[in-house]
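Final paragraph of the annual report: two paired records, presented back to back.
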Amino acid sequence: MASLPILRGRWVLPKALSGDNGGVNLGAVGRVLLLSLLPIAELRGGLPLALALGFSPPAAYALAVVGNLLPVPFLLLGLDRVLRLLQALPGPLGRVVRRYLGWQEGRGRARVDRWGPWALLLFVAVPLPVTGAWTGSLIAVLLRIPIHRALPPIALGVLLAGVLVLLASLGVIALL
């Protein structure tokens, strides 16, 4: 099993997660990355999972942040096409999609009109339900914010959310 240099060493990766030859347990890494890139869970689920699997706080933070950021460029580039298809759905499902997207657009427009694309940082950084990188990307696409202006605040929001979730997971701060 190949080892990942960024995660090698006893400070970052506990011996229990190492493979037979001291490499990284790719199954554990994969689970953390997968949960972190999924909507709703994002790093709010991936980071505590990484800690529960025995990763050190720096390794847990790094894996969850990378996993959460992986889908963002693809969302910013391709979500518009998916949204057009979903909005064209007939019947009650189409109405629900259009209502939800209208709610998200209205929710984001007031803040983006006031603070510009940096308002996306708030949507992403606050570790509450219906926030995160997926929501920030959705709002950026709905408001037609170009990728080069949307990606930096979303990435910074993920970094800040990671710090907040890490501190909460370690019991340093209490969220809600």
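The closing record of the year follows.
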Amino acid sequence: MPGKFFRPDFGFIKIPMSMKKIIFSLLASIFLTVSLFAQDEEEKKGGWKKDHLFIGSGINLGFSNGFIIGLNPEVGYSINKIIDAGIATNVTYFTQRSQVVNSSLRYLAVGAGPFLRIWPVRSIFIGGQYEYNKISYSQRDNSVITDRFKASSSSFLIGAGYGSRNIGQSQFYTSIMIDAMKDINSPYRDSFGRVLPVFRTGFIFYLGRKNHDD
């Protein structure tokens, strides 16, 4: 990205690289272990269950010398009692003013990617999502557009959250994730390449209905 574009800097605490590696390794190990267990359980039960198919959306909101708003529509399937998997999309709009000069940056990011959420206990989950975004930037100086820029980025979001999950009925969750990749154009990194936590609240509804929890 050209140097004259300023990127959002929310002032979050920088996460040490060693800590990110530890978190990534731990989550990867848990994903592999639980996925193998879930596959074995599903093979024993077998069969596609209509009331395990769901649709929903996550919502992003934030403020810092401007605002950020985003939607993350998704479609997925509850593989069993502890695993959800599917495809999520991303539409994020961001605007921020410089604190130094009369200049502002706006960008629109549109993307999609697969996700996996694992619920080791009833109200807590860990998750991962690969996301590929196309991003359009515009910079305004004295209210006049002075430059435009387009880019693409890949992100791998990992994190955890809290919520309620009733298979066949609905889900609600709030999560915090970080981008484990180092793409300079990532919407989830500031102008210095530091990780910006991603906060999301999601609402999910199952396409089939049933009278009891799975």
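The radius of gyration is 19 Å. This concludes the annual technical report; the extension proposal builds directly on these records.
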